[in-house]
Specification:
By secondary structure, this protein is an all-alpha fold. It has one domain: Heme oxygenase-like (Heme Oxygenase, Chain A). The protein is about 80% helix and about 0% strand. The chain contains ten helices and no strands. The relative contact order is 0.20. One of its GO terms (cellular component) is cytosol. It comes from Coccomyxa viridis.
């Protein structure tokens, strides 16, 4: 089993996560400010929790893989600062109340922190892959949202995601049958809640 298999095992969930109507609405400019703002606020909350998950994955990783998560943590720290700027530009609070979908995603990260490195590495890759690939598929994105697509859909981020995939593939190859089952379950959970996360924003009034 490899990372690519995790997308093929659940094509409908993968499509929902990667090609949701929220992304299409960003692309053609039909997204409303309230919908985009709802996503932005909750995504800040998620990324804040995801940075803590990255720390756990780095601590669990073999030395040959640690550099990737160290680099990722630095990028996430910078990203959280950027989020605050974007939220302020839109007169939105950072660290506002958690939507139940965002809270469920953060709870999932907490559960994954207790799993083996192989599960964590695959999950970490998948979260970053979805961000990267979803915004690539949505591009070109209409203004004023183009910078968001460019941030997560750019070639440098894709190269980083490729490194994460290599790490995860190595870990998966060394995983036993029980761990591989946990990896498949984690992938399904991530793809499902990613779709719910986009839908959460679409339902904002």
């Amino acid at each position: 089993m490899k990372c690519a298999d995790l997308l093929q095992q659940d094509p409908s969930a993968a499509e929902g996560a990667l090609q949701h109507p929220f992304l299409k609405a960003c692309s053609d400019g039909s997204i409303t400010p309230s919908q985009f703002n709802a996503w932005l606020q909750q995504d800040y909350n998620f990324v804040n929790a995801f940075a803590h998950f990255a720390e756990r994955v780095r601590a669990s990783s073999p030395s040959a893989h640690t550099r990737a998560y160290t680099d990722g943590l630095a990028a996430l720290s910078e990203e959280l600062t950027w989020f605050k700027v974007k939220l302020k530009e839109r007169s939105l609070q950072s660290g506002g109340p958690l939507h139940e979908t965002c809270a469920a995603y953060i709870d999932l990260l907490g559960q994954l922190e207790k799993q083996s490195y192989a599960v964590q590495a695959a999950a970490f890759w998948l979260v970053e892959y979805v961000y990267n690939r979803a915004w690539q598929l949505a591009s070109p994105v209409a203004e004023p949202y183009r910078e968001f697509a460019d941030r997560w859909g750019n070639a440098d981020f894709s190269k980083y995601v490729d490194i994460l995939e290599q790490n995860a593939d190595e870990a998966i190859q060394n995983a036993d049958e029980k761990q591989q089952a946990s990896i498949r379950a984690a992938a399904h959970a991530i793809l499902t809640i990613e779709e719910r996360f986009w839908q959460m924003a679409m339902e904002a009034s």
